[in-house]
Write a structure and sequence with these properties.
mainly alpha; three-stranded antiparallel β-sheet; 3 helices; 8% strand; elongated
């Protein structure tokens, strides 16, 4: 779970999910309101967890496997990934060159 860099408060799972779903580049701390952003490593790890299975799937699945089983497997994987995302989050300060894009 992410921890605010200003007030050092640890966010709850629900607060973390709310910030992920907002799709905003800058995330406000639910306790002090300070704007922060996800680290590059967080964005890369979530991207890899989402897309690697789709890239490797054609090499893993036999033609005998039913497509409904594959669809169910994908749905379960994506659901589990969504539940895990707040645990993968880490935030950092907004660099000076991006400060001008933060809405106050």
């Amino acid at each position: 779970m992410p921890k605010c860099i200003a007030c050092k408060e640890k966010w709850s799972w629900k607060q973390s999910m709310r910030s992920i779903v907002s799709f905003s580049r800058f995330i406000g701390c639910p306790y002090c309101g300070k704007k922060q952003m996800l680290t590059s490593m967080t964005r890369i790890s979530i991207l890899l967890l989402v897309f690697v299975p789709y890239v490797t799937m054609p090499y893993v699945i036999d033609e005998e496997v039913k497509s409904s089983a594959v669809a169910i497997g994908i749905a379960i994987y994506l659901f589990a990934l969504v539940l895990m995302m707040p645990f993968l989050m880490d935030v950092r300060e907004i660099p000076k060159h991006l400060q001008k894009y933060v809405q106050k």
